[in-house]
Amino acid sequence: MIADESLRAPLEALSKQDTDIAKAYLECGLPPTRSQDAGFNGLVGMIISQQVSVQSAKAILGRLLTQVGEITPENILALDDEGMKAAGLSRPKQRYARGLAEDVLAGRLQLGRLPDMPDDDVIDHLIQAKGIGRWTCEVYLLFALKRPDVMPAADLALQEAMRHLKGLGGRPTSKEMYELSENWRPYRSAGARFLWHYYRHAGIA
């Protein structure tokens, strides 16, 4: 895996602000590069990724691409239940993907406007779609739109990594994750990327 050099400066800045980050960063180094497509294709990928492992999500996405060729609203709506099932999408995720396609085609979701919107407006716009919650919005902001100050606080791996990093007695809640990462501003995206890296590197379970 290739280290993401774009995270070096923000993680060095975070290391000066947080001694726990500084120690873990020395042990784990830079996270690997990772990105996500923007637009409809990226959002469908994020819906697929909900509550499954990264490996499972990649496998499902690969099978879906085999079914449709290209992930567009039109192609998703043309795929029948059997095709969706063969790709590995659960019934709720089938509904969410089709609902997203309908919202985009009807103009209720205007994904092309998102890069010019502030973070909170992006969340308000996306969260209208069924199956898209705050976690998906924040992951989209972080990976697809490359926003620098986002913390997907409901992510269980991030919560476990924060528990381990800070030596907490239990897994922090979403509210506590926002509080614990408050002093990481304006580099919370780098902090979140590092927590995922730390989770895998430290073998936290």
From TrEMBL:
Q: Looking at the record's lineage, which domain of life comes first?
A: Bacteria
Which EC class does it fall in? hydrolase
Protein name (record): DNA-3-methyladenine glycosylase II
Matching PANTHER family: DNA-3-METHYLADENINE GLYCOSYLASE
What sequence ranges are listed for the domain HhH-GPD? Answer: 48-200
MF GO annotations: alkylated DNA binding; DNA-3-methyladenine glycosylase activity; DNA-7-methylguanine glycosylase activity
Q: What is the lineage of its organism?
A: Bacteria, Pseudomonadati, Pseudomonadota, Alphaproteobacteria, Rhodospirillales
Under the heading Pfam families, the entry gives:
HhH-GPD
Cellular component GO terms, alphabetical: cytoplasm; protein-DNA complex
Q: Which organism is it from?
A: Kiloniella litopenaei
Q: What is catalysed by this protein?
A: Hydrolysis of alkylated DNA, releasing 3-methyladenine, 3-methylguanine, 7-methylguanine and 7-methyladenine
